[in-house]
Design brief:
With 187 residues, the chain is mostly helical. The protein has 2 domains: 11-135; 138-187. The chain is 81% helix and 4% strand. The chain has a 3-stranded antiparallel beta sheet. A hairpin with a 2-residue loop joins strand 2 (139-141) and strand 3 (144-146). Helix 1 runs antiparallel to helix 2 (77-109) and helix 1 (14-75) packs antiparallel against helix 3 (115-135). The longest helix has 62 residues, at 14-75. It is elongated and about 95 Å long. The two termini are 43 Å apart. The relative contact order is 0.10.
Length: 187
């Protein structure tokens, strides 16, 4: 039976630093999650109220425009019926264009959704990076110093190796099944 070797700290205080990073990360996730939930609720309420108001305004304005158009056309029916209809259509077109420009300007001026959460996450990431860089090359395993970037590269390499092994196993399995189904045609 072999002995499992574990990483040892090169200097004192590494375990305390790791505990501090873990505690900071836990507090950060809890706080940012609560902030995200609050901003999400606020954004949903803002959008719901805008939608309800826009629909109500649209219905009322539509009825008003239909009645105003009918009034103008009836008043000018005997003399200038085509000019009255054209003038009302031009008025509606200008009003609709102005409303679209207003909506576009208001959307551009509104704050980005979750801007507070994103700013907080950026600040937290900078704090965690500074704490992690304080650890430096503090870990040693079998006499070799392991840095956090080196550990990350090793993890990426291991994940890639596992994927390659899985794809190779799948390919061999497909070839074996193809041979079983088609005889010796597949080589």
């Amino acid at each position: 039976m072999g002995v499992i070797s574990t990483p040892t700290a090169a200097g004192p205080g590494v375990l305390e630093a790791l505990k501090a990073i873990g505690a900071t990360l836990e507090d950060t996730v809890r706080l940012r999650g609560a902030l995200f939930a609050l901003e999400l609720r606020e954004e949903l309420e803002r959008r719901k109220s805008r939608l309800v108001l826009a629909v109500a305004a649209g219905v009322l304005l539509h009825m008003a425009f239909v009645l105003a158009t009918a009034l103008v056309v009836v008043a000018l029916w005997d003399t200038h019926r085509v000019a009255a209809i054209a003038a009302m259509a031009a008025l509606y077109l200008a009003g609709g264009g102005a409303l679209l420009l207003f909506i576009r300007a208001k959307a551009a001026a509104s704050p980005d959704p979750f801007a507070g959460t994103l700013r907080g996450l950026d600040c937290d990431a900078a704090t965690l990076r500074s704490q992690a860089s304080a650890l430096g090359d503090a870990f040693r395993w079998r006499g070799v110093a392991l840095s956090i970037p080196a550990l990350a590269r090793a993890a990426r390499f291991a994940a890639t190796a596992i994927r390659v092994a899985f794809v190779a196993k799948l390919a061999f399995s497909l070839v074996r099944h193809a041979r079983a189904l088609g005889g010796s045609r597949v080589r």
